[in-house]
Structures are given as C-alpha cells and as structure tokens.
Input
Amino acid sequence: MNDRVKEDVEKLKAENPTASVPVDLVTTSASGLDPDISPDAALFQVPRVAKARSMSEDAVRELVTRNTQGRFAGVIGEPRVNVLALNLALDAAKAK
Output
C-alpha cells in the first residue's frame, strides 16, 4: 500500500472509527472521472454528510438507499450510487 493510500485510510478511520473503510474511497479510477461510488462508500460518509447538511443520518441513509442502482439486468456490474444524483436528491430534501 502506498503512502497516499495509508494516509487516506487513517484520515477516514478518524472520521468514522467504527466502520471499515471502503476501498473505493482510497483508490482512484483510471480516468478519475467515475461518477459512481459503491453503496458501502456512500453509507460510510452518511454521518459526515448528515452533519454538514443538518439532516438526520436516517434521512441521508434513506436517500443513499433510494439512489443505489443494482446490477445491469441483475447480473452485470456492481451496485453503485451516482454521486451527482445523490447530491441533487440531498439538495431537494433539504429544500423541503
């Protein structure tokens, strides 16, 4: 594991010490433009996002769940959360 990844893991552990750090939060895609993260990565960030947006963790967790897409045709790829779509849903929920 390189130094950047080790440092990122330590920072994330400090942010959420009771949860395992999802690998996609400390690695990068080849293009660096991937709009999706794993459901685990989105859920890991729920406490921080809830605090930053003055929302309950349950409300943020529900939006993550609603914005999680399954495998294509039920078999291809991995479940994922589109970060832009989730942020728009968080904005809309906050506006209510």
Summary: Residues 3-15 form the longest helix (13 residues).
